[in-house]
UniProtKB/TrEMBL annotation:
Gene name for this UniProt entry: recR
Gene3D superfamilies linked: 3.30.60.80, 3.40.1360.10, 6.10.250.240, RecR Domain 1 (1.10.8.420)
Function of the protein: May play a role in DNA repair. It seems to be involved in an RecBC-independent recombinational process of DNA repair. It may act with RecF and RecO.
PROSITE patterns linked: RECR (PS01300), TOPRIM (PS50880)
MF GO annotations: DNA binding; zinc ion binding
Alphabetical keyword list: DNA damage, DNA recombination, DNA repair, Metal-binding, Zinc, Zinc-finger
Presence of the UniProt keyword Zinc-finger in the record: yes
Matching InterPro entries: DNA_Rcmb_RecR, Rcmb_RecR, Rcmb_RecR_Znf, TOPRIM_dom, TOPRIM_RecR
SUPFAM superfamilies named in the record: Recombination protein RecR (SSF111304)
Name the UniProt record assigns to this protein: Recombination protein RecR
Listed HAMAP family: RecR
Native organism: Faecalibacterium gallinarum
Length: 199
């Protein structure tokens, strides 16, 4: 640790700030950067700088964009009556890859987590509620991960949205294809049972 040159140690420390990256992973990444050509290292640094300075939150859905309004919000063919609420910008990409969802999105940039000091005021809840005022939106889909924080956030938002007369739904949670019933936890089995469809 102490025997690393100062610039290398600083690089390791910066990589270690990423979620899920420990000291070992950060050290590997730092050495990978050192093995790059000057041109590639400059290109990486420029890509980080550009992402940081040129991207901003879309004023409508809060997803990251380079344009004034993101291409999804600006898209004429999107169904403006449905909003899918997600935790992170990456979740939008996951839904878009399915090519099955054609509605709008809203990115919260986190979940309510009192243990981590994150309340509704730190998320883009005000912006979501503002979008629901003009009567265009008929359904809001809660698409958070099935965690304690995800459930708490979905319930909190549903309580705020229900009085507006807008249908609030959540993603069906069930058994993944190819899984075995005997190894499935009780909550997943219950959800799969509750969300069953007719054949």
């Amino acid at each position: 640790m102490a025997n690393n040159a100062a610039p290398l140690e600083k690089l390791i420390e910066e990589f270690a700030k990423f979620p899920g990256i420990g000291r070992k992973g950060a050290t590997r990444m730092a050495y990978q950067v050192l093995s790059m050509s000057d041109e590639d290292a400059q290109s990486l640094a420029q890509a980080i700088q550009d992402a940081h300075t040129r991207l901003h939150r879309c004023p409508v859905c809060q997803n990251f964009t380079e344009q004034e309004i993101c291409p999804i919000c600006a898209g004429a063919k999107r169904d403006k009556s449905v909003i899918c609420v997600v935790e992170k910008p990456r979740d939008v990409q996951a839904f878009e890859r399915t090519r099955e969802y054609h509605g709008m999105y809203h990115v919260l940039h986190g979940l309510i987590s009192p243990m981590d000091g994150v309340g509704a005021e730190q998320l883009s809840v005000k912006e979501l509620l503002a979008r629901l005022k003009d009567g265009t939106v008929q359904e809001v889909i809660m698409a958070m991960n099935p965690t304690v924080e995800g459930e708490a956030t979905a319930m909190y938002l549903a309580k705020l949205i229900k009085p507006l007369g807008i249908r609030t739904t959540r993603l069906a949670y069930g058994l993944p294809v190819g899984s075995s019933l005997e190894y499935t936890d009780e909550t997943t089995l219950y959800r799969a049972l509750a969300g069953r469809d007719e054949l």
